[in-house]
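== Polypeptide entry ==
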Amino acid sequence: MRKLILAGLGILLIAASIYGAKKIIDSKNKPKPVQEKVVKTVLTDTVKNTTVKIVVPANGNLMAKQRVELYSEVQGIFKSGNKLFKPGQKYNRGEALIRIDASEYYASVQAAKSNLYNSIAAIMPDLRLDFPDVFSKWQTYLSGFDLSKTTPKLPEMSSDKENYFITGRGIVSSYYNVKNLEQRLSKYNITAPFSGILTEALVTEGSLIRSGQKLGEFINPSVYEMEVAISKTYATLLEVGEAVQLNNLDHTETFKGKVSRVNGSIDATTQTITAYIEVKDDSLKEGMYLEANLDAKEEPNAIEIDRNLLLESNQIFIVKDDILDVVDVKPVYFSDAKVVLKNVPNGTIILKKPVPGAYVGMQVKAADNS
């Protein structure tokens, strides 16, 4: 009897274990909850091919179109004038910039001129006797000879005999010696070649100036040029006289310029060509940094989009029946933020902003552009 009871308890225990195990297994096979599919909303745009104006950005510093570096060709003491030789000082055309003391050299010039005068006066009796037909013109020349003025040009020789006679007396060589001295005397005064302003002064009044010494810089502040480097791709597109818009760094001021010159050679290192933009404005200063926008060309049947929308394989995403797809395109120009594309059919719906994690076949929903 005891064995029967124990056997019955064992059977019940086994049955209970099987039932509990079955319940545990059934509880693990419950179906997982179905997650709701998220459809991203994207910004789109409809393609409409037009003529895109390609604008090439460039930048550089302004330099005066007319500038002169002042050097001394003679030696002497810098004499003070009506204006101080200081940066920022304005001078009119023909006004003396620098006057160097030339009293000693002036005396030697006057002595040479006096010797020339005496040499001509000494031959006048011989001219009266041997060359009476040319005596009058040499007499007129001698009468008009003024030591305080520039030496006048010698009379024209009318015959070989006259030429031999005048040259043999050393008058021609004396004349050119005087003209050489007068030419050097003019270098003691440096005058302004144009109306402008002194931007650099390296000497002061009273100081000793030596031959070959740099004295300063003088510019015309009314006209400036900016040198810019442009890709060789647009070397044939730039034309002299083409209008250019320039801006300062803050884009608070706009200036109008024009292409004044284009270099005929390409830099072998950078493969760029140098263009010079001329600009006039009273508010401009030398050394000012400006940005220029050059109208290089017009590309027909093209669109312009953000660069980050172009894939590495020269493709862009399009939206077709709320599904993302790609289409091949032809880039024709890249700027810092934009790219100009061709071969995109009109009416194609493209992305206006990049979508993170986008892939072909991805389901999207176009946002209301309004």
